[in-house]
Amino acid sequence: MRRRSLLGLGALAAAAPLAGCGKEYRSDDAVPPVVSHSAPQPGEVVGETPVVTEGGGAVPLEPGKVMLGAYVDLKGRGANAGIDLRRRQLGRPERIVHRYYSWDDQLPVSLAYVSPKSTLMISWRGPAYKDVNGGKSDKLIARAAQRMARRKRPTLLRWAWDMNRDFYEWGGPANNRDTAGYIKAFRRIHGIFADEGADNVSWVWSPNWNSRPSESWNTFTNYYPGDEYVDWAGVSGFAQTQTPADMFDEFYETYATRKPIMISEVSAIDRGGSTKPDWIVAFRSWVKSHPAVGAAVWFDTDTHPTSRENWRIDSTAATLAAYKAMSNDPVFIG
Fold first, then answer.
1. Digits of tens for pLDDT over the chain (334 positions)?
2. Secondary structure string (H, E, C) spanning the chain
């Protein structure tokens, strides 16, 4: 399944058998309390903010550069035709090609429309936490890991995104506020992938900038799996009247000292006049002034079934011009 809304808009312990699968997988049953993110990590100091200058796992951060990509799904065009249109408009392939998969879908070993110059990012739907943590899904996870290992190419994997929102089966609100259960599930999946040799996978942890409900138990920090399980700290946000700083500053200040930052889903509502191109200009400026940001992925579609909003980069000529200017900026690598 390809559409976002259809998908539901410490060290690892020693090996131990998990229920539901004959193979032994590593598990980390004891989920520690959330730790403070305030301690600076080694890295470059920009002003008063220490930021990482490396990391990203199999898809590494390129210091001083930003991988600009998109989820492209355009009315009347298949994935290949839509991505090819963007290549012609921008004069280069997307650096990140973003696609969505359901929990029981076969993850792709290869996709013809992903250029050798592009990195695939898979957003993989999650089930209820109990279906992972009880071992019920171990075989499914192992098969997915084996397919990812067969890809051989570095691949971004974004499991159970926007978990701090109330509209997904894998969200904390749908799982009895069990944020520790999310962490446990993330770690279990990570461990099975490691045991299956899928070391070409780069793990993207990706809450929404805006928790719903906005309650202390549901803050994004309560879902963080831990530094050793996360390669990229991602955050998604769709601007209405908010500025990029409104949406992303808090997340950046929390994780830029420890992980490369990805803006993993982003777009802006067109409120008339030059509002959308102006927002893109502001976003470009914000990213360039935040050096731990190493990737940004636009939600480039007009097919979202629950929204009449046109999120495309070419919704107007001025919007496309602003986006092309960002794409042509030397910081946003082609």
1. 333 433 333 222 323 333 333 454 544 445 544 433 333 333 444 445 689 989 999 999 999 999 999 999 999 999 999 999 999 999 999 999 999 999 999 999 999 999 999 999 999 999 999 999 999 999 999 999 999 999 999 999 999 999 999 999 999 999 999 999 999 999 999 999 999 999 999 999 999 999 999 999 999 999 999 999 999 999 999 999 999 999 999 999 999 999 999 999 999 999 999 999 999 999 999 999 999 999 999 999 998 777 778 999 999 999 999 999 999 999 998 6
2. CCCCHHHCCCCCCCEEECCCCCCEEECCCCCCCCCCCCCCCCCEEECCEEECCCCCCCCCCCCCCEEEEEEEECCCCCHHHHHHHHHHHHCCCCCEEEEEECCCCCCCCCCCCCCCCCEEEEEECCCCHHHHHCCCCHHHHHHHHHHHHHHCCCEEEEECCCCCCCCCCCCHHHHCCCHHHHHHHHHHHHHHHHHCCCCCEEEEECCECCCCCCCHHHCHHHHCCCHHHCCEEEEEEEECCCCHHHHHHHHHHHHCCCCCEEEEEEEECCCCCCHHHHHHHHHHHHHHCCCCEEEEEEEEECCCCCCCCCCCCCCCHHHHHHHHHHHHCCCEEC
Domains observed in the chain: 46-333 (3.20.20.80)
